[in-house]
Write a structure and sequence with these properties.
Structural class: mainly beta
Organism: Marinobacter xiaoshiensis
Strand order of the largest sheet: 2-1-7-3-5
Strand content: 25-35%
Largest sheet: 5 strands, mixed
Distance between the termini: 30 Å
Order of helices and strands: EEHEEHEEE
Helix content: 10-25%
Radius of gyration: 13 Å
Number of strands: 7
InterPro entries: 2Fe-2S_ferredoxin-like_sf (IPR036010), 2Fe-2S_ferredoxin-type (IPR001041), Beta-grasp_dom_sf (IPR012675)
Protein name: 2Fe-2S iron-sulfur cluster binding domain-containing protein
């Protein structure tokens, strides 16, 4: 129950621990890391899209608009809705919010 898994962000090389059963986004936020923009935290807005380069995970419900089946097959997922089963290597490619949406979502800075 106290198992931790390692998540590494490929571009920055930064790693963080994620509790078993915890979403990648929540683990990032709890450790004060800021890799991806944060929106609804519920799989509907698509702001926290990442690509899983290696490792196994389970998925919660995600908007098919933001993660269609072909994107999911390529490892593109929402960080708020994936739960690591093994250590993961992810790639964060934050999307730029559309004009007029800047005040509707909290945007975070890249990891240091």
């Amino acid at each position: 129950m106290g198992e931790f898994l390692q998540v590494t962000e490929q571009c920055s090389g930064q790693s963080f621990r994620c509790k078993a059963g915890q979403s990648v986004l929540k683990a990032m936020e709890q450790q004060g890391l800021k890799c991806v923009p944060v929106g609804c935290r519920g799989g509907g807005c698509g702001f926290c899209k990442v690509t899983v380069l290696s490792g196994d995970y389970s998925c919660g419900k995600m908007s098919r608009v933001h993660v269609p089946p072909e994107a999911l097959a390529q490892g593109q997922v929402l960080a708020c809705r994936i739960y690591p089963l093994t250590d993961l290597i992810i790639e964060c490619r934050p999307q730029q919010p559309a004009a007029g949406h800047m005040n509707e979502h909290t945007t975070t800075k890249a990891m240091r």
